[in-house]
Amino acid sequence: MNSRSLSLQLQSVIFKNDIASIEKLIFSLKQSSALAIENGNIGKIVYRIGDCSPEALIGDPSTWCRNFSDSSLAVTYEFFNENLGHGGGQNRLAQNSTADILGIINPDVVASPRLISILCNEFDDPSVGIAEASQIPMEHPKDYDLVTRETSFASGCCLFIDRLLFEKLDGFDHESFFMYCDDVDLSWRVRLENRKIVFCPQAVVYHDHRIGKNSELEVSGAEFLYSALGGIMLAYKWGRKDIAEKNLKYLRSESMYTKAVEEFDIIVKDTGLPEVVVGAEKVRIFTPSGFANYRWTN
Questions:
Q1: Which end of the chain has fewer surrounding CB within 10 Å, N or C?
Q2: Other CB atoms within 10 Å distance of the CB of residue 201
């Protein structure tokens, strides 16, 4: 891929998010876009926002988008009128895209000035499938090779992916993963295509994590529910039925996971378990802490 002629589509899925935070992200993306264009990294950048909220968060989308667009970044907004989940929303936004690269980015982050330039430059290497940003103030603890920067999966907080590869893989598996673990699943499918996941420490986003009074990471109700559910679906899909059943047994024994178990039972009844991925053993990594070797645990 020639970084001098690339086009980029950034995209975020929102659900009752704070508009001021989204606008702060847009301002940071405009700065990063202008620098990337000035440096010759990229030619055209659009930022698509998909709204899964019960009611549209933007009252006058055309005016709002026009006010936040400039020569470096074209902003669009679409109200889905249904909650598609993270993967479903991202897939909808990616439909009919002609961009060379898709940039998946959380709406609760702020981009550093060189974010876009650094991540897009990674695609000069045709073996790269996904380039992942670094998060501050709490970096993702999964391990990566200090020389090659390869890692087992990319966090969906901020990742750039070859658009043609994304389409070949049919995007995120939104049927198996409503939220959480869909990024792990996508990354492992990318690696099965013999494409690399590279971590970029200098491509930074500020991610709005909150720390509780006992110094623990605050987790939303949605994250608590869907990360537990996603972990079980991931184990089934990637050929570790033993892990899935062990974890499901634990969830059924704990009342705080009742909603997750109920959601799992509904999915199994309606659509069944996902088919096991052929060649799963080549790329999957299941550890006591998650889906990679970790440098530390929270």
A1: C
A2: 13
